[in-house]
Fold each of these.
Amino acid sequence: MNLRIANKNDWQRILDIYNQATVTGFCNADTEPVSIQSRRDWFLEHSPTEYPIYVVEKNDNIIGWCSLSPYRKGRKALNTVAEISFFLENQFKGQGVGTWLIQNVIIEARNLGFNNLIAILLDKNEASIRLLKNHGFEKWGHLPEIAYFNDTICGQFIYGLKINR
């Protein structure tokens, strides 16, 4: 596997994987697939030197990605906190790709000078919760019953990890 910083040519593949998770359900808070146009600003706020988006490749195919995003953008006291998000192609889940991706992005985040990583995820996303816990993330908060998916209501967890002390 190879980890590299994403570029504009990767945007569609990143969204394909994200939209696959949307359709699967309870992997993100979107209820329908998103387009490049609707996510353009999100892509543009990520830069290789501050808030990168990483892709993981296997045999030259992107099979997953992970982003480091600003947490509470514009609030200088939180500049050393990054929100981590990660998504894998369904067929590669449960094969150690997520573990490899998170391990490598934690190292990258530390090298970028972040002190803390946080993940905000739906409380029904048990696979991601397990993955985060396996990397030392701890539950730092819970927002109960705030996400509505047709007939299902769920909350969001905030998991955190101190990476530079």
Amino acid sequence: MKKTALFEEHVKLGAKMVPFAGYEMPLTYTKLNEEHQTVRNGVGLFDVSHMGCFIIRGVQAEDWVDYVTSNDVRKLEIGQAQYSCLPNDEGGIVDDLIVYRLTEEHCSAGERSYMLVVNAANIEKDWNWIQEHKGAFEADSINISDRTSLIAIQGPDATSLLQQFTDMPLEDISFYHFRKGQVAGFENVLVSATGYTGSGGFELYLENDHAAQVWQKLIEAGGKPCGLGARDTLRMEMGYCLYGNDITDDTNPLEAGLGWITKLKSKGDFVGREPIEAMKANGIGRRLVALELDSRRVPRQGYSILSESGEEIGKVTSGTLSPSLQKPIALGYVHRDFMAKGTSVKVDLGKKTIDAMVSRAPFLKV
């Protein structure tokens, strides 16, 4: 199992460590609900250094990135980030990712530079996929995953906490924008107004050698460490997709509700364009929906979703007990005839079924 640069810090803090995406990662430090509410009401810290980071730079870097992703990379200005996905040849999803357009201070004339941040479990898969689709594009790539640490500072108090350690005016960094500068005495830290919780905040990209000291300073100033458990319940309340559960190689971005990052009108050719266009023309056969349940039982991935008459119409992809709402919530794919908000369905638990209703994400407004 791999370890992030913050592994020893987690052990010192008494975190419960678990295997995740090939890494030993903290599941909880105290209690899941406590860590969840810390992020909703204050500020929590997450080690997400297991994520993958690729740099693509060159005269045709924009063309290469635009060809392998679904969103319109050409709309990005320097200092902007963009949520996107890597479609496969059948229109499924290799991975979802964030694309950053970096400064060009270290580039030669005419070159552009991008950073692609991918899911930890897919680093090798994504890297190979992108390389296989380089073609004749004049650009170079480098995998900086193993030398880069990533700390997420999330919650309504994230700005006030981080501002103590940087001269960058954090209030001026709008959502999905970023800057590079000094943080806690270390140079060249990328501060991005992104995150996976829905409660606002920042993500710091920095060198491994600096990660422990920055982490320690943030904790000393009042940041509370949080684990993967709270990260999952937080994203579930927002209805954010998790790769491997809600989106996979076999799910089309349109049926996953990701048409907004699939720019068929403004983009030229890209991997998977034809099957995605065909699905748009013919109509989707199923749709990822949010489900609210009238039970204390939590639905799990793979549970069948039934119509009121008992016909199987889909499958649950993610489920949890919402700490904020104090009731079970889930995501799942259902046949298109049952995707309307307010539709009554059932979830099959095996020995019994529980009533559920099709809702809309986010489950919680923060």
Amino acid sequence: MRHWLPASLAIALAVALSPLAAGAALTEGDFYIKDAQDFVDLCSSPESDPLNDAATHFCHGFLSGAWQYHQAQANGPKGVRLVCPSDPPPTRNDVIAGFLTWAGAHPQYMTEPAVEALFRYLVERAPCPGVAKGDKK
């Protein structure tokens, strides 16, 4: 004997489970950033996600840390500046939004380390004069 769900119950289940189909909520494991896609997932978490605040802060912190490292190595005796932002420089929110747009258009880089993909974007956005794209001298 077959049992069928009433249509209203089936619709209610579909609506309730639709967030799972669209993508599960973030977990603590998502913060280990194994590749650029993990970074994109954290930086684009929906406000409704219970870990959204932590993901947003992590995203900003990762970006700030990567930038601070670039600045430190660029100012060293053999430093090479790869990124030369405008004056005034863009805000972190602008950089993150731009990166997320760029990442959507460049899925081939989402398996790279997050910092590599981030700097691919930054070099495209604000290359330094005399430093060719991808040239790390």
